Amino acid sequence: MLDRPNSKAAWLARAAALKPEGRAFIDGRYVAAASGETFARVSPIDGRVIAEIASGDAADIDRAVAAARRTFEAGIWRDADAATKKKVLLRFSELVREHTDEIALLETLDVGKPIANSLAVDVPFCANCLQYYAEFADKIFDEIAPAAGPDELALVRKEPLGVIGAIVPWNYPLIIAAWKIGPALLAGNSVVLKPAEQSSLASLLLGRLAVEAGLPEGVLNVVPGLGEKAGKALALHGDVDMVSFTGSTEVGKLMLTYAGQSNMKRVSLECGGKSPHVVAADADLSKAAEAIAWGIYYNQGETCHAGSRVIAHESIRAELVAAIAEVQRTQIPLGHPFEASSQLSAVIEKGHMERVLGYIDLGVKEGAKIALGGKRALAETGGFYIEPTILDEARNDMRIAQEEIFGPVVVVIPYKDEAEAIRLANDTIYGLGAAVWTNDMRAAHRMSRAIKAGTVWVNTFDRSSLTTPFGGFKQSGFGRDRSPHAIDKYMDYKTVWIDYR
């Protein structure tokens, strides 16, 4: 590994010299799209083209699925012993760590997040996830069920599903890809990974590193391309046994439709969110404000479970809003992603920037007050930056409180009593995450039980571990990533009943 750049100028020089691989990775090698078509990837940092990406379509998905099916039916990975799977997946995780700087640079150029966070969070979390599932290779057991008689044996076997289509979003491309390919490969499946068209570069490198680690060619394939072409073709493919999707609720519903239109493949969905912070009058406001600010401004607010609604008791609302703004000012500065101090940087693309700014304008028209930010920033860079924003004195029936903005924008809604707070927290189509802030543990238990969300934090936010499952209720989807529970969705149970008589 080369010496790590320690300045903005050094990172810019490294970026200028980088020649990213944009071709699809199918059957162990990089190949152009069957059509020969590419699309330009424009970096949100400065608006310049950083790579030409293969524009995969149904023909490329066919090639990738055929490679995955061939390797699965041949059993070269499916039937490998536990020691082999563990060795390969551990080596895969080690190679990700060895290429930390290169992968982090690709991630930052592609999606605009601060390089410090790509280095310290995204790449290590990807490697840690692969390592976590590698360690399960020799810890998955079949079962023996009670049989009807002494001369019978009932076995319950866990078997891999076959070919998995993994479709990942652009906000945490590395981390979410690892959440899917880690347990899917551990279970013995073959995988076709479809990255978002905005964030293909790091995923394409993962394909090569997997083969370098010893994964047989064709077991992990990566097909970039537009969602309406490559993603749709993967979800409709009749030889794909499951699609594991993370993305918007709108597209998640399409995944269900595509499964029904094709082969009734299994579908696992982790979709949108509008996570509430319920802040009681007796809460530690300093602690709550810090968690709220980091929970909405980290990663530019482009986080599915970002705490984008603050449901604050009317007696402390104004004080809390001021405290959130102060945390942002002192701890979460906006800046160029290659500046060491930056903790908030460019949003994914120009169209998304305009969408988020449109929601801010809409919020003002609906009657909310801008308490912080609200405008485009750093326009002179050519990149796509938005000021961290607070929309105060909102109502929960406003569109800004109901629709996923997916940017550095938090909506503050007052409440009068606990019953109203619970009603407001649940008054959304989403149910991914939530937080409760109170020093009354009886109230904390009541509210955490009453709020419909896949994760409810109490007096903290966004704390997580690979050991805990992650996913949502309601239209935030179903199925879980992370934890041992994620392994089960990539396997099926077969009963084998043996009569010895």
Task: Please give a handful of descriptors for the protein shown.
501 residues; alpha/beta; Aldehyde Dehydrogenase, Chain A, domain 1; seven-stranded mixed sheet; six-stranded mixed sheet; 16 helices
Cα radius of gyration in angstroms: 23 Å
Strand content: 15-25%
Q: How many domains, as an integer?
A: 2
Helix/strand class = alpha/beta
What features would you describe in this structure?
With 501 residues, the chain is an alpha/beta fold. The protein has two domains: 23-271 and 478-494, Aldehyde Dehydrogenase, Chain A, domain 1 (3-Layer(aba) Sandwich); 276-465, Aldehyde Dehydrogenase, Chain A, domain 2 (3-Layer(aba) Sandwich). The protein is 39% helix and 21% strand. The chain contains 16 helices and 24 strands. It has a seven-stranded mixed beta sheet with strand order 14-17-18-13-12-20-21, sandwiched between helices. Strand 17, helix 13 and strand 18 (409-415) form a beta-alpha-beta unit. Helix 3 (82-98) packs across helix 7 and helix 4 (100-111) crosses helix 5. The longest helix has 20 residues, at 115-134. It is globular. The termini are far apart. The model has no long low-confidence stretch (mean pLDDT 97).
Write the layout of secondary structure elements.
Blueprint: H1 8-17, E1 24-26, E2 29-31, E3 38-42, E4 49-54, H2 58-74, H3 82-98, H4 100-111, H5 115-134, E5 143-145, E6 152-160, E7 163-167, H6 173-186, E8 190-194, H7 201-212, E9 220-222, H8 227-236, E10 242-246, H9 249-261, E11 266-270, E12 276-279, H10 285-297, E13 309-313, H11 317-331, H12 350-366, E14 369-372, E15 376-377, E16 385-386, E17 389-392, H13 399-402, E18 409-415, H14 418-426, E19 430-431, E20 433-437, H15 441-450, E21 455-458, E22 473-474, E23 477-478, H16 485-488, E24 491-499
Parallel strand pairs: 7-8, 7-10, 8-9, 10-11, 12-13, 12-20, 13-18, 17-18, 20-21
Antiparallel strand pairs: 1-2, 3-4, 5-6, 6-24, 11-23, 14-17, 15-16, 19-22
